[in-house]
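seq as requested:
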Amino acid sequence: MGSRITMKFYRNCFLFVFLVLLFHLNTLLLPTDAVEYVKFEKEFSGKGSTQGAFGKDIYLAFKYNIYVSDTENRLIQKLSPTGEFLLQIPSDPESQDNIFRKPGHLTVDEMGNIYVADTTAHHISETEDPRIFIFAPCVHKFSSTGELQNTFFVDPVDAKPGVALPAKVMIDENGKTAFGIQSTGYDRALRVAVNAQNQLYILDAKRGRIHKFASDGKKLLTFGRYGAGDGEFDKDASDIAIDVNGNVFVADTGNHRIVKFSADGEYISSFGKKGRDNGEFVKPLAIVALPTGQLLVKDSSRFRRKVGGLPEVIALSPTLTQLTESTPGQTELAGTIKSATRPQYGPFGPNITAADTASLNRRLRLLEEAEYRRYYEDNEYDEVDDEELAEELKRADIRLTLFHNVISRVQKFDNSGKYVGRIIYETDQLSEEKHDLTFLALAPTGHLYLRDTSDFTIAKYSVSGFTIKPSHMNGFYSTRFANLSNKYMEDYEDIDFATDVQDELNQLELKNLLGWTYSLSERWHFTLLDELTYSEQDERYITPAKVEDSFDFDTQAVENAFVANLKYITNPNPYRYKELNLSIGRVDGTSDLTQDALFPDLNKQQRIDSGDANSTVIELNWDVWSRANLWFRYADLNPAETSRNFIRRFYDVSGDLYEVFGSRNQARQFLGELTIKF
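struct tokens:
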């Protein structure tokens, strides 16, 4: 009766675990949570100043072709969809007639006209001898063939200053002395977008305004303001986009959200908040409207995948030297095996670590952006020593890392701001060629563009469904060889120096560890570990005084430990971090020990031991809340208290079997633990 009650209890517990997992999987696999991946298509461009090559700071726009503004080289280039050079504005960037100062963000309308944000010096009308110029941010409009058609200003530039202002002496285009006024923010960055009617919207984030212009340059309206409320956005808002219905979307970077306005500037809604979960942002930096009406948003969040050193593999059996003990069931050995069968580490350790501060901090560091920035971002350093220190930290981190990938995401929303899926891509931080790929742009076609910050090449990626991708895999292999030989000679207490006992011991161990991980997404992570160990020991125990008591001990042992772990990060926010782990481990081992008399013509005594072990552990570790953890563990330990389930056969001096000893023990365990932190 008791056994049936126990088995029913186990079945109910496993049913509970199964239902929990089914609930999570059902939630995760809904169509509204679709995960897409990227597929490499083409690489083009490079470092240079013309004919399809660019400087460090560039911006991309798309309208059938690819348009690139190059801040450093003061030009705009038009490329084909596959990256071939088509057109350049101006034809000679070194000419004195080049009106560009710092060309930045750009867009293209339905007619192929090009709009690019820049800074220029505008002559204030009715000022002559000397003429007075005011420097101000602007947007230049060029025809599809490169002719300048208009210049749009967001600041008043034609009125004379009402008060005295400091000005710089300069030479105008006629070679005459003039004065130039450089007001605060004259070179601030602007962002531009056009609608289907070829009307221009200019995002002036530093001033908290959006300006709308007609195609002929007439200013139609101004809306928006600085803040974090309805219809407001921060001063570091980084992008603007217009959907097929004419609605205006602003990437409100500082407030970690997207703000939506009507075509006439009326506030409609906003969506998103700070975080790493679906529909949340960490500083959104790019937004694009697709022809389907959906939106793609790229934020700054990165998910780090790192393994430093070799991970622990569960060990349910003792070492070879423990197997050769004359009495393996002794208290000391049993204590060792008890610790081995109930490990405090690895994927099957009891959930003591859930409440452990060090473990919690480690898990936070894996996702904390600050650590990534500290080591890897291309920051500007004021001092050479700081840069060298950062490089040394990076080198030290790489030396201790088997693999280190950074996963980035692009989230997809419908027109109302409802999250519908995401696109993810990985960057291998241990690749010398590809470790510095950075986000560059999103195209209305859904393509993703990354740039290598070393050689300035541009890589184009299309979006594809789920497939097994080598770029998402990480593997490692470790092998270990150990051979130890020892010789001992003992002379007992007598008056001569002669060998009474000679002991020769040789030990060999071969260990192979194979690990394989796969990032199913930025939140799903699958790991397989397999450790195969072969050990042997040969010992010759010789007693010259009584050679019939000399023996040869020979031991071979093979053990394979296998671990599979499926991890899902249910909440990636470092301060509300939660994850779910489902793990299974299996250990199979065999051992054979023989003890033979060295001189069978004098003594045929013999002992033969054969042992086996097979154990299984299944574990669930679930952060129900960020401060509450639920842990279940089922273990089928066979054996439970010894190294092996042994059968020993003893033969007497005549070679006849006189005793058989069997040792069988097994244990099933079901453990549960709830930890709540206050």
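Residues 1-9, 22-32, 308-383 have pLDDT under 50 and may be disordered.
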